[in-house]
Design a protein that fits this description.
about 200 residues, Maf protein, two-stranded antiparallel ribbon, hydrolase, dTTP diphosphatase activity
Length: about 200
């Protein structure tokens, strides 16, 4: 259905992003960046997530030529505060207690760097509403080990889905890659075309 004459590279170590991009059935390679995300300073959450996505994508773009690089960063924001990937059991429990019975926002910034160096950037936002969570459920979920490599301390595509009452927006965005919005951008930039049968 789709074709491209670009060499596509996904600048992400996330297996979830890789799985989502594979849905387009286009060939791509994975290259990870070695940048320190905490080096980004920004005046707002939107600017921060854009800055990190660009930093990762530029890092990979420096290593290859004649390729289109797609990079992304996903953050969980509660009351204009960033909830990082938890570093300890206590922090994971604190994140989830905080999100219990409330709304928060998941932002993913996607950067596309074309072979000529042109940079394209957008942010997709999804609102997530959590059920009221018991301490027993939170501790059992944290003890499963699932929260530790995930922004905000939960994965909507794994056991963390049990915590979620509803979402407003793109589900794939919460997983880590707003695929429909990315697809629109790639078509608009003429990186991806519809294949004739």
């Amino acid at each position: 259905m789709l074709k491209t004459n670009h060499k596509l590279i996904l600048a992400s170590a996330s297996p979830r992003r890789k799985e989502l991009l594979e849905m387009l059935a286009l060939p791509f390679e994975v290259m990870t960046s070695e940048v320190e995300e905490t080096s980004v300073q920004a005046s707002s959450m939107q600017e921060y997530v854009k800055g990190v996505a660009l930093l990762k994508t530029r890092d990979v773009a420096k290593k290859v030529s004649n390729a289109t690089i797609i990079g992304a960063d996903t953050i969980v924001v509660d009351n204009d505060e960033l909830l990082h990937k938890p570093k300890s059991r206590e922090e994971a429990i604190a994140h989830l207690l905080r999100l219990s019975d409330r709304k928060h926002v998941v932002m993913t910034a996607v950067a596309i760097i074309e072979p000529n160096g042109k940079e394209n950037l957008f942010v997709e936002e999804t609102t997530v509403v959590f059920h009221p969570l018991s301490k027993v459920l939170i501790e059992a979920y944290v003890d499963s080990g699932d929260p530790f490599d995930k922004a905000g301390g939960y994965g909507i595509q794994t056991l963390g889905t049990l915590l979620v009452k509803r979402i407003e927006g793109d589900y794939n965005n919460v997983v880590g890659l707003p695929l429909a919005a990315l697809f629109s951008q790639l078509v608009n930039l003429q990186i991806v075309q519809y294949a004739k049968e």
